[in-house]
Amino acid sequence: MVSELWRRLVVTAAVGGLGVGLVACGEPDDNAPHTGATTPKAMVLRLATTDTISSLDPAGPYDVGSRTVQANLYQTLLTILPGKPTPVPDAADCQFDSPTTYTCSLKEGLTFPNGHPLTSSDVRFSFDRMLTLKTPGGPAPLFTSVTSVSTPDELTAVFNLKAPDARLPYLLTTTGASIVDEEAYPVKKLLDSTAIGSGPYQLTAYRPGESVTLARFAAYKGSRAAQNDGVQIALVKDAVALDQAMGKADLAYRGFTIGQLDNIRSMSGVQVIESEDAVIQFVAFQMKSVTSRKLAVRRAVAQLIDRPALVKKAYAEHVSPLYSMVPPNFGGATDAYRSEYKQPSKAAAAAILKAGGVKGPVPLTLGWTPTRFGPGSKGEALELKRQLDASGLFRVTLRSAEWPAYQQLIRSGVFDLYLAGWTAEYPDADNFLAPFLGVSDPFPNGYRSAAATKLLQQERVEQNGIKRAELLEQLQGVFAREVPVVPIWQGRLSVVVDHEVEGVSGALDPLAFLHLSGLRK
Fold first, then answer.
1. Which domains are delineated in the chain?
2. For the Solute-binding protein family domain, which residue ranges apply (predicted)?
3. How far apart are alpha carbons 57 and 198 in whole angstroms?
4. How far is it, in rounded angstroms, from Cα 187 to Cα 199?
C-alpha cells in the first residue's frame, strides 16, 4: 500500500540505510570542523508522474508534460499566481501604451544560470525564434497578432501588434513566451539536450523518458522563488508504475485510476489534493450532418443531458459537471447552458423538436474514442446513449475508433455528434471558445456564426476587463442558444502527497501542470 511504503521509507531513511529516501540527504564532510551544530539537510523533493516530455525547448511542442518542466526552468515576462486571476509581473512590468503597442520593462539584474545577463535582446530573440521555427504542435499560433518586438534599450521590450489583442497579457504568462539565452540557443532548430532559463530552477540532469533533476536557481528574480532546494522527477509508464514509484516519492500525479485514488484516500500518511483544471469534455455536432444542422435537434440534445448522472455513472464523480465551455475558475465564465435549459426535461426537449418540425425518434450516430480522453470514455458514451434513448426522442448508434483514425472520421462527417476533450493553451476564456469558431479550428465541426464571430472579435480588442467579461458572457450565451457543442464536464488534477508536504494547492496551475517552487516540507 502507498502509505505503508512511505512509512517504511521514512523509517529506513532515518537510520541512514536508504539512498532514495523522501528527502535527499548529503553525507557529512569528515574534513569539516565539528562545531556541534547540525548541518541543515537539502530539501530535495521527489515527484513521480506519467507525464511525457516532448521538448525542453519552449519553442517546441506545447504539451502538458513539457509545460511542467518548462514552467519551472524558464521565466516569462508575466505570470499568474494562485488566487490571482489576472497576470502580474515576473521578469517585467508590462502595460499597453496604445491598442497595438505593449511595453514591458524588465527588472534590473536578471541573469541566466550560466552567468549571462538577461536583456531585452533575449526577449526579442526568444519571440523571433519561436515565431520563425513554427514547430508543429508548438506555441507559435498563439502569437499571430505579434508583428515584431522592438528593443529601445536593454531593459525595454515593445510588442508591436497587427491589431489590438486583449489576450496578450495572458499569452505572455504561458511557457510559449519563455525567455531563452540568445547566446545558447540555436536560431533554426530546437535545443532538447539541455535547458538554460532564468526561472526558479536550473536543469542539472535529464534522461529522456526516465527522469529530470532540477536545482534551485539562487539568482532567480521573480514572483516564484523556490522554497525547496530542488526537485527530482521520475517519469513512469502507467498507473501501475506510478503506484510503485510512490514508495520513493513525496508527490505523485497524473495517471492514477479512479479506483487507485479511492483506495489512497482511505490510507494514512498521504493525502489526495485536487484542483479543477483546464481540461474539459464535451459533445460536438458535425455540421456536415443534415441531422445535426437542424437547430432543434441540437437544442433537444442539450435539453436532455443529465450531467450529474453522467459524471456519477461514468466517472464516480471524479470530474465536475460543466454548464459552459468556459470553466468557472476562469474570468468571464457563466453557466450559460444551465441558464438556457434549466433542468434535463423530456417534455421540454419534445417541445423543441415539435416547434422545429422534427419528428422522432431521430437517429443519431455518436462517435467516441477509447483511449485519447481517458478510461471513462466508454462509460460516458454509453450513458449519453442511455439518456438520449430513454427519452424516446432519439435512437443513438455508437461508433468508436482509435486516435488518429477518429479525427479522420470526424472530418469526413461520419458522426452526427462526437465526444471530444480540450485542454486550454492559455489561461483565458477566449481559448475555450475560439477553437470552435474556425479561428484556430482544432475541431473541424463546420460551425459558423455571425453573432458569435462578432462577439469574439469584440472581446479580443476590448482592453477594459469588465466590458470584456461581459462580451465573453454574451458569447457563451450564443453558444448555448446555437449549440455547436454541449459542455459535459470539467476535469480535476489529482495529486497524491505525503502528509508532510506543504504548498501543493498553490502549485496546481489551472492549465493542468505544476509550479514546483512553492512546495516545501
1. 45-269+499-518 (3.40.190.10), 276-493 (3.10.105.10)
2. 88-439
3. 13
4. 21
Q: Select from 401, 392, 419, 390 the least CA-distant residue to 486.
A: 419
At residue 157, φ and ψ (nearest 5 deg) are -125, 130
pLDDT digits (tens, 9 = 90+) for 24-43: 333 334 334 444 445 567 89
Most confident segment among 229-233, 405-409, 438-442: 229-233
Q: Could you tell me if 236 and 483 are in contact, meaning their C-beta atoms sit under 8 angstroms apart?
A: no
C-alpha cell at 177: 513566451
CA distance 53 to 234: 11
Regarding beta strands 320-321 and 485-498, do their DSSP bridges make them parallel or antiparallel, or are they unpaired? antiparallel
CA 267 to chain centre: 29
pLDDT at 39: 53
Listed range (67-71, 156-160, 374-378, 485-489) with the worst mean pLDDT:
374-378
Query: 76 with 175: CB under 8 angstroms?
Result: yes
Element (H, E) at 261: helix 258-265
Do residues 17 and 1 make contact, with C-beta atoms less than 8 angstroms apart?
no
Q: Where are the extended beta strands (E) located within 236-312?
A: 251-253, 270-285
Which amino acid makes up residue 158? V
Cβ contacts of 177 within 8 Å, gap of 6 or more: 58, 76, 77, 126, 127, 139, 143, 171
413 φ/ψ sector (left φ>0, alpha ψ -120 to 50, else beta): left
324: closest CA among 256, 410, 422?
Answer: 422
Question: On the CB side of 69, how many CA atoms lie within 13 Å of its CA?
Answer: 35
Which pLDDT tens digit goes with each residue over 422-478?
Answer: 988 899 999 999 999 875 557 778 899 999 999 999 999 999 999 999 999 999 999
HSE-up of 336 (CA within 13 Å, CB side)?
A: 24
- The total number of residues shown for the chain amounts to 521
Cell of 47: 515527484
Percent of the chain scored above 70 by pLDDT?
92
The pTM (predicted TM-score) of the whole model is 0.84
Task: Please name every residue paired with 282 in a beta bridge, in sequence order, or none if there are none.
Answer: 420, 487
Cα of 86 vs its chain's centroid, Å: 16
